[in-house]
Amino acid sequence: MTIMRRETGIVGLDKLISGGFPVPSTVLIGGEPGTGKTTLAVQTLFYGAKKGEVGIYITAISEPRWVVQKFLSEFTFYDEAAIDKEKILFLEIRKSFFEEPGKLLPRIKQFVERYEPQRVVIDPITPIKAALDEKGVTREFLHDLFEFLKGFNCISIITAELSYNEIPKSLEGYMVDGIILLSYPEEKAVRRKFLEVLKMRGTKHVTGKQLVDITNEGFLVHAGLR
Questions:
Q1: What are the residue ranges in the chain where pLDDT is below 50?
Q2: N or C: at which end does the chain have fewer Cβ atoms within 10 angstroms?
Q3: What is the CATH number of the domain that holds 44?
Q4: What residues have CB less than 8 Å from 63, skipping those under 6 apart?
C-alpha cells in the first residue's frame, strides 16, 4: 500500500523523509528554547494554506494571538490573507482549560469538526501535558486526540521543549509517529542549529544531524551538510 504524503514546505526537509509527512500522522518537533520549533511548525501551516488546505494553530502559551502573529509577520512565508480567508485559524488555550482540563479535548474537537483542517499545530504541548499530569489523564488525552485527528486524515504537529536525552523517556515520543529533533550545540566556541529526523513511521528517512538556518524566509535545511 502506497503511503500518501504531504510536502512539509520546509526547504530541504522533504528530501530527508521521502517527500513529506505521512498522511495521517502525528509528528513531534522537540528541542530546547531558540531552536526554531515554532517557526518550522507554523511555516508548514502556511505552506499548506497556499495549497488550498486549512490549518489550525493551537497556542498553549499565555501570549495573545496578535503577539504570535506579530512575531510571525517578520517571515516572508506569513500571509495575512490566509488568516483573513480562514485558511489559517488560531485557537488559544486559556487558563480556564488548564484549571478544568476535562473541557480541553471537547473544545479542540469542536474546533476541528467545524473547520476540518488538513494540518494542526499544538505549540507547545508542554504546558498542556503538565496540567493533564496533575489529573493523571495525559496518556488518555493524547491517545484520544491523536486518533481523533487521524480520522480527518490530518497531519498533527506538536512541539515540546525536550532534549535528545529526554525524548526516549517522554510519553509524547512514545506515542507519535514521527520525531524531529532541533538542537543548537556549541562547537569550537560557535553555536550552529541542526535538525535530525529520529523517527518517521512507514518512511525511509535520512538519519544524522543536518545543518539548518532560520532566515527572513523561514526554516531552511541544508540536507547533507553537518
A1: none
A2: N
A3: 3.40.50.300
A4: none
